[in-house]
Amino acid sequence: VANLTGGEVESIGPAAATSTIAGGDAGTGDGQRPPTGHGIQPALLERLQASTVQVRGLDCRAAQFGTGFVVGSDLIATGAHVVAGIKAPIVRVYGTDVPTRVVAFDPVSDLALLRPADDLGLPQALALGQTEAGSVGAVLAHDDDGGPVVLPVLVQRLIRATGEDIYGIPAGGRDALELSARIHSGHSGAPVVDGEGTVVGVLFSRLRGGGSVAYAVQSNELVALIEGLSAGARPAGPCR
Description:
Peptidase_S1_PA; 2 domains; 3 helices; serine-type endopeptidase activity; Peptidase_S1_PA_chymotrypsin; globular; 240 residues; 43% strand; mainly beta; 9% helix; Thrombin, subunit H
C-alpha cells in the first residue's frame, strides 16, 4: 500500500469539497487508460445494477445527486458528501421515489448509510470484498438524470488517503484505491465492483485535471461503518 502526498482531488458531486491524497507521487493523470471492457457477464451485471440507486436531495444551496447501493436488507450505502446537509435523502427503488434517513455518517471515510422510511424489501445486497492492483471491473453509477451507467475500471494501486475530511478539517485518513475510470458528476457513492460482482470500493473523487484518475474508499472502511451501526439514526452533517 503506497502513501501518497500532493495531488489535489475533487469530489464527484455538486458543491464538492477538495481533499488531499498523501504521499510523494499523487498521480498526475499519466497512469494507464481505463480498460475498454469490464469482464462482467450480462446476467450478473443486470443483477448488480438492480441493486444500485440514485440518491438526491434539495436541502442545501444546490441540488445534490449521487449513487448508492444496497448493502443489507434495509441499508443503502453512499458517499457522506452526497447526503451532507440532507434531512431525508431520496432514493429511487422499483421506479418509486422513497425517502430515507441517514443512520450512519462518517465525514472522514466519506461514507454514509441510509435506511428507507418504509419497509420496501430492497433488492439483493451486494457482497463486499478486497481487491489488488491490476484488477479490472466496473463502476456502477447513475448520472444526474437518474440513468444507470457502467464504466470499465482498472485498479491502479491501493493507497492510504490522508489529509482532510469532507469539510476540510484535518483527519486521519482512509484506505483507498487509485483507479483508471472516466467518471463524472453524480457518480459519487457508486460501487466499484470486480469481475465477480464483489464491491471492492466506493467512489468518492477524481484527480483535478488528471483525466481518468479517480479514487474510491476501500470496502473494509464500509464494513467497519456497517459493523459499528447503532440502532438509532445519526443525522447527516451540515451542508458544505
